[in-house]
Write a structure and sequence with these properties.
Strand order of the largest sheet: 5-6-7-3-8-9
Largest sheet: 6 strands, mixed
Radius of gyration: 33 Å
Structural class: alpha/beta
Helix content: 40-55%
Length: 531
């Protein structure tokens, strides 16, 4: 591929913090560069820099030829606040914003978490759009399967560096592990060599010390031991200089470890009590019926996934449950439950406050507990006094989850909780929710999380909202079987109708052969479906 531009020795700082430094990277024409890394490491910062919204402390981007036209789709909804846009679901809003982005026909398209809120069909369409796009795309995403399908290069942001890997996400993970193994082996070999030379230097120093001592004790041999001591001093200096020269030429650093992330949530351990009940609930938007006469019960300790396409009403139902949306019918929840509601946009955080001011620990013990929790979630000491508004979206989401942990919520309502989380945090959150004893209502398009966590489903489909007592994979299988049964019924009905027509015809009739062939074809289709 032709090189479109080059990032040259770029350093970016935020206040006293260095985000990245000494960055040298090629941007190739027509490539799709996936940008990955931990929350707060600087992924969105890189896009802002390339969009021209942020200046580097040092270095620049050199574009070959004229500066390319650029469009930047940010994580958050920018200036679109008209009422028609507001009533759209998160997925519908994202689809509209993506449509606007692709319609610009720019040479460089910058996409920050474009898969957030998208259902599976919309995700398929986005992949098609990216593959057909003739320009260059840089995309920040935590969606592993999406990056596998679209990325031609991966940039990993972490530890103030950006490292490039050719290929998609899976190729990057494989190559990273290979590089790590090679670096670990070379590092261990170098450490062994350093230890070996250090041992030799210590032995020579001991011999030198003894020779110097002997040169002062034995009158007849002073000159002999003095010369011997000097030779050993020369050997010591020579070995040390050689070692320092080798290390200066190529010091092999110990491979950096990825940050560990640890969540821990407590909640009500009672099981089986009814906590939510829907009775004949109907929800409409103007003339449009989202669902009607919906009745079901959710019990304490159940982990329920809300399943439906973009715009089917999942977030709307959560708002109804929290008393924020009108509806017809009865939607009851027990008043004794301590509910934590994580919204898609995470807009209910005090952005001007720091964690220190928001959590307000009452003593040093509580402060230590909160700071330990922050450390477990991948925060540095500096984050304690940073305004929440200066943090990345993933870091803000973790701050919100921290509040749930500290308040020991009995019910967690999580609307797209993985949208802004890095991959280690997503995996740890899955494991934490699996062991969480309270009730979980989950909206996510992360199929892996649904299959791993949820044993019950709320299905939003065909102007109906119903609860099914099974997991996602079982429901898909059941759905396929139902489609198969309907298809069989249709084919059987059609075959019977043809059989009825054939009974009135004689073999020499002109239509008989045509209908007989149709009968045989339908019989074959029926057999294939039954096998």
């Amino acid at each position: 591929m032709t090189v479109l531009g080059k990032i040259q020795q770029v350093k970016i700082e935020y206040g006293d913090r260095v985000i990245v430094k000494n960055v040298v990277l090629d941007i190739k024409q027509g490539s799709c560069i996936g940008i990955v890394g931990g929350n707060g490491e600087g992924k969105s910062t890189i896009l802002s820099f390339l969009a021209g919204d942020l200046e580097a402390t040092e270095g620049n981007v050199h574009w070959y030829g004229n500066k390319p036209s650029t469009y930047y789709l940010k994580q958050e909804v920018e200036s679109e606040s008209s009422k028609p846009f507001d009533v759209l679901s998160g997925g519908e809003q994202m689809k509209r914003r993506l449509s606007k982005a692709f319609s610009q026909h720019v040479q460089v398209l910058l996409l920050d978490e474009p898969t957030n809120h998208l259902d599976q069909q919309s995700l398929v369409e986005l992949v098609k759009q990216i593959r057909l796009y003739t320009g260059t795309i840089l995309v920040v995403s935590h969606n592993r399967s999406f990056l596998d399908e679209v990325a031609t290069t991966i940039w990993e942001v972490g530890h103030q560096q950006i490292t490039a890997y050719e290929g998609n996400y899976s190729a990057y993970r494989k190559e990273k592990e290979e590089r790590k193994k090679v670096q670990s082996r070379l590092y261990e070999e170098q450490q062994k060599k350093i230890a070996r030379i250090d041992e030799q230097i210590v032995a020579l120093q001991n011999w030198s010390s003894k020779a110097h001592a002997d040169s002062t004790k034995q009158e007849g041999y002073k000159e002999y031991f003095r010369v011997k001591a000097k030779k050993m001093d020369v050997q010591i200096r020579s070995k040390r200089k050689r070692l320092e020269g080798e290390l200066e030429k190529e010091t092999i650093e110990k491979p950096l470890e990825d940050r560990d992330v640890t969540f821990s949530m407590e909640g009500n351990r009672k099981q089986g009590h009814r906590i939510i009940e829907s009775k004949n609930v109907t929800k409409t938007f103007g003339d449009r019926i989202l669902w009607s006469n919906s009745s079901f019960t959710i019990r304490q300790g159940e982990k329920v996934a809300l399943i439906g396409s973009n715009g089917s009403g999942k977030t709307t139902w959560l708002k109804m449950l929290m008393g924020e949306e009108p509806f017809e019918g009865e939607l009851w929840k027990t008043a004794s439950q301590n509910i934590g509601y994580l919204r898609q946009t995470i807009q209910d955080l005090p952005l001007e406050l720091s964690p220190a001011k928001w959590f307000q620990p009452k003593d040093y013990v509580e402060r230590g507990q909160i700071q330990t929790l922050m450390k477990n979630l991948g925060f540095s000491k500096n984050h304690w006094r940073l305004p929440i508004g200066s943090m990345s979206m993933g870091e803000r989401l973790k701050i919100k989850l921290m509040a749930f942990m500290l308040e020991k919520k009995d019910v967690l309502i999580l609307d797209e909780p993985t949208n802004h989380l890095d991959l280690p945090s997503t995996e740890q959150l899955e494991n934490t929710l699996l062991s969480y004893p309270g009730t979980v209502l989950l909206v996510t398009h992360d199929r892996h999380m649904i299959e791993k966590l949820c044993t019950k489903l709320l299905i939003f489909e065909g102007e109906q909202l119903r609860k099914v007592e099974m997991g996602y994979q079982d429901w898909l299988s059941h759905k396929e079987e139902s489609k198969k049964d309907l298809e069989l019924m249709k084919l059987e009905t059609e075959r019977q109708a043809i059989l009825g027509e054939l009974s009135f015809l004689k073999k020499k009739d002109c239509l008989y052969e045509e209908l007989d062939q149709k009968f045989k074809d339908l019989t074959q289709k029926i057999r294939s479906l039954k096998d």
